[in-house]
Specification:
The complex is a heterodimer of chains A (461) and B (347).
Chain A: H1 11-59, E1 61-64, E2 67-70, H2 74-83, E3 88-94, E4 97-101, E5 116-124, E6 127-140, E7 143-154, H3 156-203, H4 222-270, H5 274-308, E8 313-316, H6 317-334, E9 338-342, E10 348-351, H7 353-369, E11 376-383, E12 387-393, H8 403-406, H9 426-436, E13 440-445, E14 452-459
Parallel strand pairs in A: 9-11
Antiparallel strand pairs in A: 1-2, 3-4, 3-7, 5-6, 6-7, 8-10, 11-12, 12-14, 13-14
Helix pairs in contact in A: 1-2, 1-3, 4-5, 5-9, 6-7, 7-9
Chain B: E1 12-14, E2 23-29, E3 39-44, H1 48-61, E4 66-71, H2 74-84, E5 90-93, H3 96-104, H4 114-118, E6 124-125, E7 129-141, H5 155-164, H6 166-169, E8 173-176, H7 182-194, H8 197-207, E9 211-213, H9 216-224, E10 230-235, H10 236-244, E11 250-252, E12 258-266, H11 274-294, E13 315-317, H12 330-344
Parallel strand pairs in B: 3-4, 3-5, 8-9, 8-10, 12-13
Antiparallel strand pairs in B: 1-2, 2-4, 5-12, 6-7, 7-10, 7-11, 7-12
Helix pairs in contact in B: 5-8, 8-12
Classes of the chains: A alpha+beta (461), B alpha/beta (347).
Bound molecules: adenosine-5'-triphosphate and magnesium ion.
The site of adenosine-5'-triphosphate (ATP) has 26 residues of chain A, from helix 5, helix 7 and helix 9.
Chain lengths: 461, 347
């Protein structure tokens, strides 16, 4: 009956994935930014040491006795050794002429005539180097001389620092991602929690609970809950219409059949010819069959719909059984069958009296129908803490072996049913009612004695 | 000649025709097991006699290796590797500055091992320059010349003493000719860096008509023989070795500060057996530890030894690093030497 719903992904998974994706994006960004920043800082720190070195050398370039002298301070180069074990190169140019240092150090950036300092990265002696150059003009007899001092340092220490920083920022990024991922999972979970709560409250309901869903839900879910409630209301209306229709149908079929049967009885009184009497008797029997079938069918339908909207009223089971037995006593009397009831003083259960009575009626009716004349039928009521049992014991032939399994199927009649009027719905009705009342129907044959034992089990609370 | 005065066995003075650098002495230590397999070509500034026990110890450990040992001056060593590109597997030198410059200029190989890891930071530069000894610059005095005087323990004390007894010490002071000796230049420049007192001392030396020497061994010998009374900036390792042999000298580590030279090893890029050279470096380092642990008479002052008799707090090991390039700068050198000459040659 329920169409299988194909899930198209999961909100929680989608939400988690989206959050994880953005967390990964942010973590990546964080990693990139921190690394970049650190790289710049590291580069700047190398540049500033190089610049300090260049400046101190530049300051030591002087003119003495008409000659340019460069008295490189010890610290100018040793300070570079404090930072890392990198190789150091330097060069002093005066008006483009080599004064001292590494002659083949490439020009990186500083163009002639430029005053100030410039930093550049290049390759020298087979390694990547960072070089800072600065220039100064000093006065010589022949005119001003432009002195350019360059100091270069290989970058392996610098690279090592950057690698360290990369590792650190990677750890930072991963840590950030891990924390964000944790929060993403938690957030996704808390987002779908109201949905789960709603699902739980709807699916925990009994099949006949058609009350509207109340309780507070997040605003996004209000439209869903509203349409759910509207849908429930429509269903309720449709169900009560169907019930009305069934009651109407039962009435409309039974009444004319009763009329036809009465007419046939009257006709039977008048007819004398044996063959005519026989066909009238056959007719009456067929009418009985139809009437019984219609009655049982409609009862069954009624039960199906009533149990969909089961009303749990407190019913006195003892009273109900007594009443049913009284109602059937005339039928039993025709076969000289004695029906006895044993019961505790009080036994009440929650349920629908009409349905329970119909179930008990069908079971006792079977006992009468399938028992030989002048036999006894015992109806026992038993009250347990959880359930109540109505047990009907007869002295008839009992169920055939196959019938024990099949008897509750719709329209299933046993071998012993030949010559009796019936539709095969009695036990189906009884079982449906028992199930709707939280119980079941037990069929067995009495042990040691002839006869069937049918137990109708109902939840007692 | 840089000899310690021990007998010279099997050594030759060679000037190979193909080589434009001058080898003072070359000696082959054949492999102990007689195989002519691997040869470790060593170029060094250390006298053969001092190296010999080291070679034997190494060969005891690697019996299949012959050691070809060439002694050169530190300047020639630099020229051999820098200009000639001569094929040596390992270069041992007291000229830390030149060794550092070789490394800085990319002429040496990197070597990393469990042993190099054990070296303290200041004894290993770039895994290329490995210090394996610590050798203080000392003042060597002749006790007989100081008869009745207290042996000075600081430079200031030395200056005062020389000033107050100028006649006694006139012409009886020796120190390196820094123009000729690379080690002398290194000691002098580091002294000048450490304290202004160096220049005052040099001036006093100049006034006293100091004798100028090429090498520590010569200075020690002259002190021992009584030709001079004081030798300044003498390699403590050599002096102590001579003292141990009974020479009448007193070795003083100045208490104001003692410049400490680190003898270093580098593996040139031209090395033909760099792996063997690496194991020799490891041997030098490990041997050092052994000497240190045994504490017995050692050919070299171990890298971690705190020195005998010296004040550890006064020791100033020369730092291996780019700073050493400064005094190698020709302009800087020219300037330093002219100042030095002004101070010492004022006769
Ligand atoms: N007490 C009983 N003793 C023996 N057989 C029984 C008994 N009750 C039911 N049966 C068997 O089970 C079959 C099914 O019973 P059920 O009440 O469902 O149908 P029915 O009695 O044939 O028809 P209906 O009750 O709808 O008029 C019967 O046909 C009969 O063979
Ligand atoms: Mg029946």
């Amino acid at each position: 009956m329920t169409a299988d719903v194909q899930p198209s992904g999961s909100i929680r998974r989608r939400l988690t994935l989206q959050l994880l994706f953005s967390a990964a994006l942010l973590a990546g960004l964080l990693f990139a930014v921190v690394q970049n920043f650190a790289r710049e800082v590291a580069e700047e720190s190398q540049d500033s040491v190089l610049l300090a070195s260049v400046t101190s050398i530049l300051d030591a370039v002087t003119v003495q006795e008409g000659e340019i002298v460069a008295d490189i301070p010890y610290s100018a180069l040793s300070m570079l050794g404090n930072v890392s074990d990198d190789r150091v190169f330097y060069r002093i140019l005066a008006n483009g002429e080599m004064l001292t240092g590494y002659a083949d150090l490439p020009d990186m950036g500083l163009s002639e005539g430029e005053i100030g300092s410039v930093a550049a990265t290049g390759t020298y002696a087979g390694e990547s180097v960072r070089m800072v150059s600065a220039s100064r003009r000093i006065a010589l007899e022949g005119g001003p001389v432009e002195v350019v001092v360059s100091v270069a340092q290989t970058r392996s220490g610098h690279m090592r620092r950057i690698r360290q920083i990369s590792r650190d920022s990677l750890v930072l990024g991963i840590g950030f991602f891990a924390i964000a991922a944790l929060f993403a999972v938690l957030a996704a979970q808390s987002t779908v929690r109201p949905l789960n709560v709603l699902t739980g409250s709807v699916s925990r309901r009994g099949p006949q609970d058609l009350r509207p869903v109340t309780g507070s839900v997040p605003s996004e879910m209000v439209p869903l809950v509203r349409s759910l409630n509207r849908f429930i209301a429509r269903l309720k209306i449709t169900l009560s219409r169907s019930e009305d229709f069934i009651a109407e149908a039962a009435h409309r079929v039974r009444t004319p059949l009763a009329t036809v049967r009465a007419q046939a009885e009257v006709a039977l009184q008048r007819v004398e010819k044996p063959e005519n009497r026989q066909s009238l008797k056959d007719m009456i029997r067929a009418i009985d069959e139809s009437s019984r079938a219609a009655g049982q069918l409609l009862d069954h339908a009624m039960i199906t719909f009533r149990s969909d909207q089961l009303e749990h009223r407190e019913i006195d089971l003892r009273e109900l059984v007594m009443e049913t037995v009284e109602r059937l006593r005339p039928v039993a009397g025709l076969k000289d069958i004695v029906v006895t009831v044993t019961s505790p003083d009080r036994l009440s259960i929650p349920g629908d009296a009409i349905l329970v009575q119909s179930a008990i009626g069908n079971v006792i009716d079977n006992a009468i129908k399938y028992s030989p004349a002048e036999s006894d039928i015992e109806v026992e009521l038993e009250a347990g803490s959880e359930r109540a049992v109505v047990r009907v014991l007869d002295e008839g032939p009992g169920f055939g072996d196959e019938d024990l399994h099949n008897a509750t199927r719709r329209f299933a009649r046993g071998r012993n049913s030949e010559g009796t009027v019936g539709s095969g719905l009695g036990l189906t009705i009884a079982e449906d009612v028992a199930r709707a009342h939280g119980g079941g129907l037990g069929l067995r044959n009495r042990t040691g004695e002839k006869g069937a034992c049918v137990s109708l089990v109902l939840a007692s609370r | 000649m840089r000899l310690v005065g021990l007998g010279i066995a099997l050594s030759v003075v060679v000037t190979a025709a193909a080589q434009a650098f001058e080898i003072e002495e070359q000696r082959l230590f054949p492999s102990p097991d007689g195989t002519d397999g691997a040869v470790l070509k060593v170029i060094s500034t250390t006298d053969t006699e001092i190296f010999t026990p080291l070679a034997s110890a190494f060969q005891a450990q690697a019996p299949g290796v012959a050691v070809d040992y060439s002694v050169v001056s530190s300047a020639e060593l630099d020229r051999a590797l820098r200009v000639e590109g001569a094929a040596f597997d390992i270069a041992l030198s007291s000229a830390m500055d030149l060794q550092t410059k070789l490394a800085n200029d990319g002429l040496v190989r990197t070597h990393r091992s469990a042993d190099t890891e054990r070296l303290p930071d200041w004894a290993n530069w770039r895994d290329q320059v490995f210090a394996f000894t610590q050798e203080p610059a000392t003042i060597v005095v002749s006790p007989s010349a100081f008869d009745g005087l207290e042996v000075p323990r600081t430079r200031q004390a030395l200056i005062s003493l020389l000033r107050s007894h100028s006649e006694r010490f006139q012409g009886r002071i020796g120190t390196y000719d820094v123009r000729e000796s690379g080690l002398g230049y290194l000691f002098a420049t580091q002294d000048s860096r450490n304290s202004e007192i160096y220049w005052r001392l040099t001036e006093v030396f100049g006034r006293m008509g100091a004798e100028l020497y090429c090498c520590s061994s010569q200075m020690i010998q002259d002190v021992a023989e009584g030709h001079i009374a004081v030798a300044y900036n003498v390699l403590g390792s050599y002096a102590r070795a001579r003292q141990a042999l009974g020479d009448p000298i007193v070795v003083v580590e100045p208490q104001d500060f003692t410049t400490v030279m680190l003898r270093t090893a580098v593996i040139p890029t031209s090395a033909e057996s760099p792996a063997l050279a690496g194991s020799f470096v490891d041997f030098l380092i490990a041997a050092n530890w052994e000497w240190l642990e045994q504490g017995d008479g050692t050919p070299f002052a171990p890298i971690l030894a705190s020195g005998e008799g010296g004040d550890p707090g006064a020791r100033r090991p020369i730092r291996i690093g780019p700073g050493l390039l400064v005094f190698l700068d020709p302009l800087k050198r020219k300037r330093f030497l002219s100042e030095w000459q002004d101070a010492i040659l004022q006769r």
